[in-house]
Design a protein that fits this description.
Layout (H helix, E strand, L loop, with lengths): L10 E2 L7 E5 L6 E4 H10 L3 E6 L6 E5 L1 H18 L5 E6 L5 H16 L3 E7 L8 H14 L4 E10 L2 E8 L1 H5 L7 H9 L15
Parallel strand pairs: 2-5, 6-7
Antiparallel strand pairs: 1-4, 2-3, 4-5, 7-9, 8-9
């Protein structure tokens, strides 16, 4: 079975069909050239003529090493994917009659999740006839959101869906930024050994 040829994302060299192109870049004199002249300029440098903006009039081309160009493009794509953080969604479940002790316990967990950058899906689950206490569930979720207002912003206010009422919270950027790694012991030692400026005898030592 013949190998399927991968289509290149850019037109290069003989595949460029425009009659004239605009050359840009550091290694050529920028301007509009007939296509044959532009190809010749690329060949003289043992490089490729690459059409980077086909919709422009005339199309814009660069004289570059196409293999190196593709490698750099793939490298940038990989780096962008690596920087994209996967959003984690943590669920916290309440009952309409959740007591203060259980509420505080779940609140502490939520604070930890938010500091780690996770989103929160908190919900009240109504079992059987407890659905008549939906107002109580809404008050509970609003109280939960208010207790976390320093760390989280509300993405969706309490909303009843079937037998569950949902509240969605997202971490505030400032709250996540505060959780920074502690300085290494070596850094502390350097700080301790650093020379201190002489101070007047009567002045108290500054403390943090």
């Amino acid at each position: 079975m013949p190998r399927q040829q991968v289509e290149e994302p850019f037109k290069i060299n003989q595949k460029i069909t425009a009659r004239e192109v605009r050359l840009v870049g550091d290694n050529v004199e920028q301007g509009v050239y007939p296509i044959d002249q532009a190809r010749k300029m690329a060949q003289e440098q043992n490089l490729d003529l690459v059409e980077i903006s086909p919709t422009a009039v005339p199309p814009v081309c660069r004289v570059i090493d196409y293999s190196k160009f593709k490698y750099e493009q793939k490298k940038k794509t990989r780096e962008l994917k690596a920087k994209q953080t996967k959003v984690v969604l943590k669920e916290i479940r309440f009952g309409p009659n959740t007591d203060d002790h259980d509420f505080d316990f779940k609140l502490k967990h939520a604070q930890e999740f938010l500091k780690e950058g996770a989103k929160i899906k908190a919900y009240v689950h109504f079992v059987g006839r407890s659905i008549v206490f939906k107002e109580r569930g809404e008050i509970l979720l609003l109280k939960f959101a208010q207790a976390l207002e320093d760390l989280a912003k509300v993405e969706q206010l309490p909303k009843l869906e079937g037998k569950r009422m949902f509240l969605y919270l997202a971490p505030k950027a400032a709250a996540v930024a505060k959780v920074a790694p502690k300085p290494a012991p070596a850094d502390k030692d350097k700080a301790a050994k650093a020379p201190k400026e002489a101070k007047p005898a009567q002045a108290p030592a500054a403390t943090e």
